[in-house]
Amino acid sequence: MADDASEQEAGSEGGDAIKIKSAEFATKFMKAFDASKDTLQNSVVCQLAKNKEPLGMCTLGPHYYAGMPLAVKEVLEGSLVDTSCLAYGASWSTWSSEFKLPRVWPKLTPEWSKWVPRMEHFFAQKWKDYGIYDSIKMTEQEIHMDRPLLAASLCFWSSATNTINLPLGPMTPTLLDMAAIFGFRPNGEAVCATAKFPSSLHASLKPKAIKNDKKAKDDAEAKAKQLLNYSTFYATHAVDEAVSETRRQPPKQHEHAAFLLYWLCKFVFCSKSNKCTFEFVGIAEALSMGRPLALGPFVLARLYRALRNAVIDNMNLDIGGPLWMFQVWIQTYFHELRPTCPPFVPTMTLGRQIIALGTHTHSAVQCFAFFYSKKTMSKDEFAICYSRDHPSFLEINISKPWDKKFELDVILTWGSFLISRDLNYGLKGTVRRYGVEVYLPNFVARQLGFIQSCPALFLMSRNYFSSWRDGFTRTSQCSAVGNYYEEQFGKFERSGLKPRCPDHRATPHFQAWWLTFIMKNLGKDLAGTQRAALQGLPNLLGPKEGNGKKKAPDGKLKSTKGSSKQGQTSKKRGSTLGYTRNAKKTK
């Protein structure tokens, strides 16, 4: 079926060579780590009280309070296994010069435009209760691909640390970002290979068992596969009504769960098969029943894996996965790369508002130069997601004392945001798909309102702190990932989280280390680095991209709303720890 071997990502487990190099790096790193333990603080939230550092301020651990140890620094700079574009280049062979969208890029269809308002009529409040309302409503808009921005930003992505490495420091989509931009819940019931999901919808989609008749069995399986195509799936499971219909027919059996499966496959996970897959049926049915699933960590793991697969596979965008979320995340944090807009509405996720802005006029060369030269960000820019109080699980303000009855809410939410760990990737029933993606909030502390110090790599990661990805063979390995998080969460809960004002600075120790690290990776010559990274990228190197308009005389980026050639193809524009209500950050 559509969720078997055909859904396996290209290079998912990596070759033997990269595995060997990764294991060698891990061995070297562990020796360096053992020699540097005396300067390591291992708590989730750590107090800074050393010379030349902000007295009494907080950073995220684990971190090195006295600066990056020389032994660790040498291993990171000399042996890190990171198959990034800047290190190895890319062929760009799968990037069409005709500005065609990748197969898996979510496209708005007439049936989806009818299905969303129909289901919203019956389930809007439940979606809000479940924490998926904004995520669904976001998909009513055409998500226009900004090819130059994606091309340039992917060049800076590190699949070893799951960060985009810029002169100002590393940044990444965090679980806080996934909540503020896309509306995904950071905690709740874990979504992983060991999760117990309902199966009635899954059973209804499977072909009926036919014994002793191979032809009939093959025909039944072929028909079942055909029914998973998006258009056929809609025709089978939806009540076809006009958008303007006021007297709605009652939902069909499994219609809500089928709707959610369509949404998950097409827009959230962007399945490689470009159709509904059995892999996500259990999630869809569980959501339709109101189960509070922690979608944030699972979706983020899928995004990280998609970015990793794209980078190691010569920037192939047809590898599956929600790469559009990476584009929207970039546009969220870097306002220069999106069209100008009025202040964001506080009662709507950032993603819904940014998608509605349309596209921006710039070239890949301009975007690359922007990232290469990005040395600073203001506190307001760092805090764009931190300062949000929507969706509802971001409501409690942690800059001042909160009511004790919300203590568990705060700890649950912020524990998920702040604890470095592996995130489970893959679900039960898929082929060779179990694994993890490392989540390192201590590398991007400023995005979360903490001072950035010299971060320590997550020692327990199954991926050897590298571009290699371990392929699990047993669900018990997934259980171990969850058990580690529960153990770390217990320590975090016992230590508590005190009210605190956000601080988006970096320590002098971090700045000194990062300057040498990033210069080794980026080089000192913009033109040479840019040429090596983008060589072979079709029709995206000059001002022709972006509706053919020339750049301004001053060389600055100019914005238009929906002016790219690709954008013109559519005129439809933006019109298991316990679960409780969650927390809000300071403004």
TrEMBL record:
MF (Gene Ontology): hydrolase activity
Keywords of the record: Hydrolase
Positions of the UniProt region annotated as Disordered: 537-587
Biased composition (Low complexity): 560-569
Biased composition (Basic and acidic residues): 546-557
Pfam families in the record: PMD (PF10536)
BP-aspect Gene Ontology terms: meristem maintenance
Aminotransferase-like plant mobile domain location: 131-341
Keyword Disulfide bond among record annotations: no
Signal peptide interval: none
The protein's name: Aminotransferase-like plant mobile domain-containing protein
Organism: Rosa chinensis (China rose)
